[in-house]
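[Help] Beginner question about ligand-bound structures

Sorry if this is basic. My supervisor gave me a protein sequence and a SMILES string for flavin-adenine dinucleotide and asked me to "get the holo structure". I don't really know what that means in practice or what format the answer should be in. Inputs are pasted below exactly as I got them.
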Amino acid sequence: MRGIIVRRRLHYGITRHVITRTAALANVQGTHNGMDGLFGMQHSASRRAVVIGGSISGLFAALLLERHGWRVDVYERSGGELAGRGAGIVAQPELREALSAAGIGDIGAVGVLVDTRILLDRKGRELLRLPCPQTVTSWERVHRLLRARLSDARYHSGMELKRIDTSGELPRAEFANGSSIEADLVIGADGIRSTVRQQFFPEARLEYTGYVGWRSLIEERAFSAGTHARTFWTMAFGLPPGEQFLGYPVTGPNDDLTPGSLRWNMIWYRPADERELSRLLTDGNGRVHEVSIPPPLIRPEVRLELGEAADRLLAPEFAEAVALSPQSFLQPIYDLESSRLSMGRVAVIGDAAFVARPHVAAGVIKAAEDVLSMVVALDEEKSVADALQRFQTERLAVGRRILARAREMGASYRARPPGSPMAPGDHDAAYARSVVEDTALTTFLRQPA
Ligand SMILES: Cc1cc2nc3c(=O)[nH]c(=O)nc-3n(C[C@H](O)[C@H](O)[C@H](O)COP(=O)(O)OP(=O)(O)OC[C@H]3O[C@@H](n4cnc5c(N)ncnc54)[C@H](O)[C@@H]3O)c2cc1C
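Answer (accepted):
No worries, everyone starts somewhere. Holo just means with the ligand present. The predicted complex, written as structure tokens, is below.
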């Protein structure tokens, strides 16, 4: 089997052969009716991996490792459904390939096809219209596809990792309920505030970018006929000075792809310095929430201000979307750059490893490709530690590249001191074109670094 491996550079900096091998594996499984694949079987059939976090990267890790012969258990802190909390995501072309490598093949449409981008000014005049075919979907849909593929017996919810004990030969994950488990490999897929990262790589710190995103999903049927006809089927941008509004259609509740039952995902980036952020995060009882504030606790005056700002700054179609979003949620935007991703038999992937502002829209596919890089290295290297070292080298480079690009794209939305010059707005045609042309495209990763 190893003879069929062809090394080619993959878009995100890993080699193409992982896809080739996994596709071959799927065929083998089809005829042998077994879960353990041939690849990696020789040296990993008895190996056990523990994955902390049961969201997108944790599930990708579990499914890929299983297909490479590992016994995997996922431990997720949340006791309930994760699915209801998501919003829209741009499904980069590589997502289908990554899903297929995880054993999720014939799924029909991943999401909704949008082929046009438009830019509207404050009065609703169309400043720009560009062709740009892309699939857009919801976090829920991707999560559901992955979760459905993993056996319930391997997914342990309500399990919060406290720490990993590395005093023994193998790392031991210790949970808040007092239980613990030893494994040959422990993967921290535990997101932006990763417990694993904070224990092993405490030098990596979240950096607040100086702006927030207001996000919501709006039922397709709620829009007026005029707004629906004009904007619903597009990726629509608004660029008030120093801000950015973006919207596009996504799947309806329960993955419904029927026109009429879809939803529109909106995100409105607005500058907010530290002081303003803490004001936005303060609830009606004066409590300042640390990371994010639950939508029902956002004070009415904050929502009122948002509606007024929408009427003042955004196209009427976008102001309508804001008005239709009484439960929009506030997402402070952070960067996270890591200098290490692995130590011995422990590694971090996905948002636990790197967080880039959302303008590149690479979070999901980066998570998937972190895992693809890791499974190839585990198959090919002599030891887990060597494999994780190689994974680290490959993925640090890609993470840094995505982060640099996202920082560059988000630089205009940073909070500015009062009286300083305005950031480029819809009066700056070159800037506006670059935002509309470049947002949510990962083509730069296919160019040489
Ligand atoms: C609910 C939700 C909705 C999202 N929606 C979008 C979206 O609409 N668009 C988009 O681009 N991105 C979205 N993201 C982020 C996007 O999914 C990520 O960039 C990408 O999927 C990689 O995520 P991740 O799995 O690395 O981290 P996350 O999705 O953040 O998952 C981390 C998981 O680890 C669990 N966890 C954390 N600490 C512990 C612990 N100590 N012990 C056990 N478990 C722990 C968390 O409960 C969580 O489920 C969302 C993330 C979440 C959690």
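A couple of things worth pointing out: The CA atoms of residues 186 and 346 lie 5 Å apart. The radius of gyration is 22 Å. Feel free to follow up in the thread.
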